[in-house]
Amino acid sequence: MNLEIAGNVQGFKQQDGILTIKTAEAEARVYIYSPTIIRVSISKNFNPDDPSFAVIRQPLADFDFDESSANIDITTPALKLSIQKSPLRFNFFTAAGNSLSEDDARFGTNWQGERVICYRRLFEGERFIGLGEKTGNLDRRSAAYVNWNTDAPNHTPESDPLYKTFPFFIGLHSGLTYGLFLDNTHKSYFDFGASTDEETSWFGADGGDLNYYFFGAQGVAKIIEDYTWLTGRMEMPPLWSLGYQQCRWSYMSADEVLNIAQTFRKKQIPADVVYCDIDYMDDFKIFTWNKKTFPKPKQMLDKLKAMDFKLVTIVDPGIKVEEGYKEYDEGIEQDYFAKYPDGENYTGYVWPGRCHFPDFFREEVREWWGAAFTALTQPGVEGFWNDMNEPAAWGQNIPWIVKFGDKFMPEVRNAYGMQMARATYDGTRKIMGNKRPFVLTRAAYSGTQRYSAVWTGDNTGTDAHMLLGQRLVNSLGITGMSFIGVDIGGFSGNPTPELMVRWNSLGVYTPMFRNHAIQGSKMREPWEWGKNNEQIIKKDIEQRYKLLPYLYSSFYQSTQTGLPVSRTLAIEHSFDGNVFDERFQNEFMFGDAILVTPVESTKLTEDVYLPQGSWYRLSSDKFYEGEQIVNVQAPLTDLPVFVKAGGIIPMQSVVQSTNEKGDGILRIHIWNGREANSFIYYEDDGVSYDYEQGVYYKRVISFNPIEKSLSLSLVEGSFKSRFMQLRFVLHGFDGVKLQEEIVENKNGEIEVKL
């Protein structure tokens, strides 16, 4: 195997907003997308179409550069890219000249066969966060990872790879921040100094271009904002999808599904969603219903609707090989399936047996797939769960010679699940008109946030997986995915009652709150764990519903800035070493104001690190100064949750579903603090896309500690709030008795003296 290292620059030119640089080994192209985003792409054979599944923005039309005998320098208001000529190396600096990231002087970009790798300097004390769904520690330093979307049903807290590919990370050193996104769907590699004597980090892929976007904004939140500007942001989810979701493999009949829903209502445990796993289908054939166990799906859906329940149904990509089956016949007739090079349709075994796999990389196939959802939407299904889309086949090893369109499987495997989610989203949005679909996917690639929510796959009912799940949620949040869930209680295995209680209490603060389990395991519904535990779980689910106004507003923030709902503390406290301590790395912010500490089910006290600021225990209003480690009580009835001083949290009364109006009072909770703070409160109908036309309700709630006042700005948007009255609930304000004061929720400015 030969090694080729990018050598000296032989020539360069700028044309149409692209700086092209030639060496004997390859060609490099440089693009500017914004003052803080620069793209570098290096290849031996560029694709003239320059496709990307992730990026939705175009580069600037032109930019200036300076040339000297040694370098080509590109300077923006925020960044300086210094391109060394002999040999070709790319070094990034702040506008003030501080080094952010540099090519390794010896090896830079190099090739071994088709594999392309970029070696970069490793800075002293440099930390790395991101890469999405990756196990291990919050700080990726001294670890190595592979991106190869994999069905990983028995994964451990150390397994790699898993189901998703998000080749985007953020580097932290010297008080500086930078980000890097390798937009390449081949099997890819990231090594953060795992075995290089603390000298280099490196990243690359088995083939394709070394095509990366460099982000130079200062502050992790700013980098996330830029990354999601580049790759897109989520849209507002349907409000019902933020409620409690009950799932199982499988509820075996319409009667069982209805009984589950009826039991929630009888016991007055709030819930919005029940799922149908693979057994609702006729012989596991996608877009069919089992005529014996689900004989009248519309009748079942109508009954669920009458109880304010939504149904989510699973869809897998494998199309059963069976003449007379509509999707198979159409796929064969239209030539829509992945193929061997000789034109034969690829066949793999999944749940239905022998299956073909749709080629979701072709627009006409995506349209065909999307149109088929009428079999589910006509009876009334509004949620669509995309599974087994790594793509998975028994044996886990789809031949590399299988082609999707003009690409072989290894070139695009990592994007297959994303394209399936895209087809599902586009199709159901078209069918459902002005109603928002809920799409969930297991496999994903960067940019999937535009189409779908994700969950972390087949976890296990252990404390270790509960804590790992939270790290995965936090890490996925860095990479643009805000709508994320885990299988509460663990998909496989049998959790203890204590773990089930603890995990549900953590689910309150998980963006998607879904309980799910494998066939043959203990039933996981809240009433299956004894009367006392049922009451604890019920109380926690009620807390989730109280928090929905705050949570929905936090999702609105994600649509505007890309900032996730569940946030590792490293976003706001990037250079606080305690944040990366393995004892505290699972802690996270839930929205702007709430800090959550996951605790193992066997522990009744916990050491908690409270970062800079002042904090209140949510359950007791006990006050703590930040930047210290505190040992707190952590009974199963009271997960350690804290509110930042100055925090503003709008809440509602307990309701049984998101469709229930409640008492019409929005309770605005404010915790006293020394610093001014504000919160953007957002409402819309929770169902339609009317908000895109200005039919929403938005106002800024501000706390002024100097003037001791709380103010609400003039309402923006034409939507009428569902809350007719406002109640201000004060915490930490000694002697103030404002809790009982209720005011009319008018659209004009409102100010309350505290």
Automatic annotation (TrEMBL):
Origin species: Mucilaginibacter rubeus
The organism sits in which domain of life? Answer: Bacteria
In this chain the Glycosyl hydrolase family 31 C-terminal domain maps to 562-649
Protein name (Swiss-Prot/TrEMBL): DUF4968 domain-containing protein
> Which residues belong to any copy of the Glycoside hydrolase family 31 TIM barrel domain?
235-553
InterPro entries on file? DUF5110, Gal_mutarotase_sf_dom, GH, Glyco_hydro_31_AS, Glyco_hydro_31_C, Glyco_hydro_31_N_dom, Glyco_hydro_31_TIM, Glyco_hydro_b
The family classification in the record reads: Belongs to the glycosyl hydrolase 31 family.
Question: Which GO BP terms sit in this record?
Answer: carbohydrate metabolic process
What sequence ranges are listed for the domain DUF5110? Answer: 666-731
Alphabetically list the UniProt keywords. Answer: Glycosidase, Hydrolase
Domain named Glycoside hydrolase family 31 N-terminal is located at 28-191
* One Gene Ontology molecular-function label: hydrolase activity, hydrolyzing O-glycosyl compounds
